[in-house]
Amino acid sequence: PFEVLVVGGGPAGASAAIYAARKGLRTGIVADKFGGQVAETVGIENFISVKATEGPKLVANLEAHVHEYDVDIMNNQRALSLKSGELFELELENGAVLRSKTVLLATGARWREMNVPGEQEYRGSGVAYCPHCDGPLFKGKRVAVIGGGNSGIEAAIDLANIVEHVTVLEFDKSLRADEVLQRKAKSMGNIDIITEAMTTEVTGDGKRVNGLNYTDRATGENHHVELAGIFVQIGLVPNSEWLKDTIDMTARGEIIVDAKGETSVPGIFAAGDVTNSAYKQIIIAMGSGATASLGAFDYLIRHNVD
Ligand code: FAD
């Protein structure tokens, strides 16, 4: 069996695996897709000591660094369930069961979807979740941003520099974004903000998005907006559904961890965006991966389960 089995190959998982291997622990890492959200990121300018890099470059560096150590890397493998017992048992989608003395969950998060007709049909054909990645595809066109939180308004400001026009649709009466971001957005000539707007449908011509329908929640009236693209910015969902009955989570599905990264089940640790950490960033995910890994080491020397 493994001594530390890491689930997730983003910055948190990579960092955890390296810390565990450096303690001489038998370490495995299972990842649905190595690199995680970083693989989808274009520019990264806040990974301290590296002035500027790109997602795919950072992923290649993460992978190379993990390869420096004796870590069993199982890429393109999805974990389905986790059972406690003498040893923890992690069941994979391919039917394999991996056993380990400790488990470190670093399965990250994904964009929240609107769940309206047309969204899935036009995903990648006008419906987008990543302004950094897909913004340039809409150069000179009209787009919408769904969501008036920090990520939505940041996206609108970012997109307004590239596209012809941005319409922000916010479900609530007011925007939740920081005042400074709202001021910036309002100062840009090509951003319109509509509040109390419930998006009801993504429309298209069968090939690509051509607009959206929304209901004005104040008046009940339905409206259509013509657009080439829709950026959905309504939050992050932790990839923790498969662990619902295993460990304690917040109401939003974030795994609750203590100062050592330990969950409600002794021997199961968690790190990165899947946890209730205050902010979700690469450097934070890496730090918490290191913390949880050292927490697992601490657990192993105390429990000496051989
Ligand atoms: P993730 O990166 O989400 O990795 C999760 C890993 O778990 C993946 O390998 C995934 O395949 C795997 N996984 C999930 N479920 C399973 C399962 N059931 N079985 C097996 N494996 C599973 N942060 C910054 O600091 N700077 C930035 O400039 C920046 N820009 C960003 C831009 C975009 C477009 C996005 C999406 C995020 C950005 N972030 C940025 C945030 C940053 O990417 C995340 O905070 C960070 O990647 C979180 O790392 P993580 O390891 O916790 O999770």
UniProtKB/TrEMBL annotation:
<keyword id="KW-0560">Oxidoreductase</keyword>
<comment type="similarity">
    <text>Belongs to the class-II pyridine nucleotide-disulfide oxidoreductase family.</text>
</comment>
<keyword id="KW-0676">Redox-active center</keyword>
<dbReference type="GO" id="GO:0016491">
    <property type="term" value="F:oxidoreductase activity"/>
</dbReference>
<keyword id="KW-0285">Flavoprotein</keyword>
<comment type="function">
    <text>Serves to protect the cell against DNA damage by alkyl hydroperoxides. It can use either NADH or NADPH as electron donor for direct reduction of redox dyes or of alkyl hydroperoxides when combined with the AhpC protein.</text>
</comment>
<protein>
    <recommendedName>
        <fullName>Alkyl hydroperoxide reductase subunit F</fullName>
    </recommendedName>
</protein>
<keyword id="KW-1015">Disulfide bond</keyword>
<feature type="domain" description="FAD/NAD(P)-binding">
    <location>
        <begin position="3"/>
        <end position="289"/>
    </location>
</feature>
<comment type="subunit">
    <text>Homodimer.</text>
</comment>
<keyword id="KW-0274">FAD</keyword>
<keyword id="KW-0520">NAD</keyword>
